[in-house]
Design a protein that fits this description.
heterodimer; A: 115 residues; mainly alpha; two-stranded antiparallel ribbon; 4 helices; elongated; B: mainly alpha; Sodium/glucose cotransporter; globular
Chain lengths: 115, 548
């Protein structure tokens, strides 16, 4: 994005203001809160998904075990991938609403000069 | 009347109904497009619909953009023929959305404006990075477009019941396919140049509603027949498939004991889960909402809609195996692409019944709507990139007014649409699932590394970005050319020659790490580094300050 693309009539922060904000402890805290959720969550869901794919390829005996009627381990494992995906999406939504949005909107208003 | 005349009469009813419903959908969407064009005034209206969509609307539109014919017909078909292994596809396609939700959607919304190139070029030298972004956007979108249009051709021929050697309105099967490709191409160009992002988005919302309605209705019909007991549905599917319990276990399609097919499964799994967040037509959807919070909400809606849809395809696929039978499906289409429509006919009362004809015509037009909404999104993404990345920032170096930029975008939509039509006519015999998997592999290998490095790695620079994109894209394409999909196997594109040496069908397991590696290597071999711009990107992406 080039600086020529600023919208008229709105306070566009300067490069200096961005650098100062980047060094601000409140911004460091926001970045830490964001990364503390998304990085571990990403590692967790990727590992969980890869475990599923690896078992589907190499753990066939285990995956084929019947649990309930015709429903086997592979079926429930697949359904659990849906459950974990929905679950992480909901957890992240709550976390972002509580821990990220209030801080980020404060910092944005401050940068854009709307207190 | 004997059976033959009844059958002929119902065939005629079905064709009339199907064509009638197609016509209704086309009329409705063209009306929406015209309405949208009256609202469109600025460049932003064309590129991002004025950023005015709500999270729910955008969630449905993302669903409409993402759930392609490959998902609806392809996954239901793979499940109907190969049982459990089809489920693997849908899980990869769904879990992939967490990458988009956690790492990409909000940050991209805050720091970009119209295209994927906006974010990649944020702190880099504009021309080389935007050129690379344009090249990969167009490559990914064209593969995906051809897949959808080839699928549309065969689908319409099948649904209208035009077999080999038969004629319909004086058209042979091949000619009917080509006519379909041209009509689909003309419609997608119209949606994009007249309606822009606003019109395209509404077409996708309507399509998502239709698709969810159709899939839900069919699932209820199927489950009623099995007293809402999934175990008896699966048991009956296993029996009818003729494969018994193996039908419910992983491995019918992947892994006949050979290590290659197992590694291929992992390679495919990686490409599916990492490709979504690198698809340009998906990325630009995050720009259509007013704030990052809305982008987050819309991805959550999309996850809910797409996840529910894939659960429904389980019932459709196993239902088709149980009620229609794998042999009847394979007789109609060896790839299984007609499993869902055949199931609809069966649920409506079977071949020759009026209910069957009505339900089949309805599901056929849902499939047609599905294809149209996806190809419109792809055409919009690629023409936006041509105009905004290549024309405005590479050729004119940023010195261009909005109106001529949008004019170039419309022109680009016509050219890309025409190219896609011609390529699709020559590609009628390519495997649709292969083209889609390839688009995902290229997106995961070229685009995703560049996007993640851009957003999270301070040292990342121009050379790193171009090496990541060209390296990932190049390795993916190179490996595919020498894979068994292109030559040396009975189902290959060129089955009578063999120059394949790469053993896997999907290149992801090599090309995705290669994309990340080249991005790293290009970065450390270049001295360029702009700390101030990274400070700015970080602050803007997380706070939304200065966002458009």
């Amino acid at each position: 994005m080039t600086s020529s693309e600023t919208r008229p009539g709105q306070g566009q922060p300067t490069a200096d203001a961005y650098s100062r904000m980047n060094a601000d402890p409140r911004f460091a805290d926001l970045r830490k809160r964001f990364r503390n959720f998304v990085f571990p969550a990403t590692v967790a869901f990727l590992a969980w998904y890869l475990l599923y794919v690896l078992l589907s390829a190499f753990g066939r005996g285990f995956m084929d075990t019947k649990i309930l009627g015709n429903l086997n381990v592979a079926f429930f494992f697949g359904i659990l991938q849906f459950v974990s995906t929905f679950g992480i999406a909901i957890l992240y939504s709550r976390y972002a609403d509580d821990k990220l949005d209030p801080v980020s909107s404060d910092l944005r208003n401050e940068l854009e000069g709307r207190r | 009347m004997n059976d033959l005349t009844i059958l002929a009469a119902s065939e005629a009813t079905r064709r009339t109904l199907t064509l009638g419903l197609f016509a209704v959908f086309i009329a409705v969407t063209l009306y929406i497009t015209l309405w949208a064009s009256r609202q469109n005034k600025t460049a932003s209206d064309f590129y991002d619909g004025g950023r005015s969509f709500s999270a729910v609307q955008n969630g449905f539109a993302i669903g409409g953009d993402y759930m392609s014919a490959a998902s609806f017909l392809g996954i239901a078909g793979i499940i109907a023929l190969y049982g459990y292994d089809g489920f693997l596809y849908s899980i990869g396609f769904l879990v992939a959305w967490l990458v988009a939700l956690l790492l990409v959607a909000e940050l991209l919304r805050n720091s970009g404006r119209y295209t994927m190139g906006d974010v990649l070029a944020f702190r880099m030298r504009q021309r080389p990075v935007r050129t690379a972004a344009g090249v990969s956007t167009i490559t990914v979108s064209i593969f995906y477009l051809i897949a959808q249009m080839v699928g549309a051709g065969s689908l319409v021929a099948l649904l209208l019941g035009i077999g080999k050697g038969e004629e319909f309105l004086g058209l042979s099967q091949g000619a009917a396919k080509n006519v379909t490709v041209v009509i689909v191409g003309a419609l997608m160009i119209t949606y994009v140049i007249v309606g822009g992002m606003r019109g395209t988005t509404w077409v996708q919302i309507v399509k998502a509603g239709l698709l969810m309605t159709g899939a839900t209705l069919m699932t209820i019909f199927v489950m009623v027949k099995f007293n809402f007991n999934p175990s008896s549905l699966l048991g009956s599917a296993a029996t009818e498939s003729g494969k018994g319990d193996a039908f419910l276990n992983p491995g019918l399609r992947y892994g006949a004991g050979d290590w290659k097919t197992k590694v291929d499964l992992i390679s495919l799994g990686l490409a599916l889960v990492l490709g979504t967040a690198g698809l340009p037509h998906i990325l630009i959807r995050f720009y259509t909402v007013p704030t990052a919070k809305d982008a987050r909400r819309s991805v959550q809606w999309a996850i809910g809609i797409i996840g529910s849809f894939y659960l429904l395809t389980l019932a459709l696929g196993f239902g088709a195996a149980a009620l229609v039978g794998s042999d009847a499906i394979r007789a109609q289409n060896p790839g299984g692409n007609t499993a869902a429509p055949q199931l609809a006919e069966e649920l409506g009362g079977g071949a020759g019944s009026l209910g069957g004809a009505i339900f089949l015509a309805f599901i056929a037009s849902v499939a047609f709507a599905t294809i149209l909404a996806v190809v419109a999104g792809l055409t919009l993404a690629s023409s936006s990139s041509v105009a905004h990345d290549v024309y405005a920032n590479v050729i004119r170096k940023g010195d261009v007014d909005e109106r001529s930029e949008v004019r170039v975008a419309r022109l680009a939509a016509i050219v890309i649409g025409a190219v896609a039509i011609v390529l699709s006519i020559f590609a009628q015999n390519l495997n649709v699932a292969f083209l889609v998997a390839l688009a995902f592999a290229v997106a995961a290998s070229g685009n995703l590394p560049a996007i993640l490095y851009s957003l999270f790695w301070r040292k990342f620079n121009t050379q790193g970005a171009t090496w990541a994109i060209y390296g990932g894209l190049g390795v993916a394409l190179f490996l595919v050319i020498f894979s068994p999909v292109v030559s040396g196997s009975p189902t290959a594109m060129i089955s009578d020659r063999d120059f394949s040496w790469f053993p896997l069908e999907n290149p992801g397991i090599i090309s995705i790490p290669a994309g990340f590696f080249f991005g790293w290597l290009g970065t450390v071999l270049s001295k360029e580094r702009d700390d101030a711009k990274y400070d700015e990107l970080e602050v803007r992406s997380l706070t939304g300050a200065g966002a458009h």
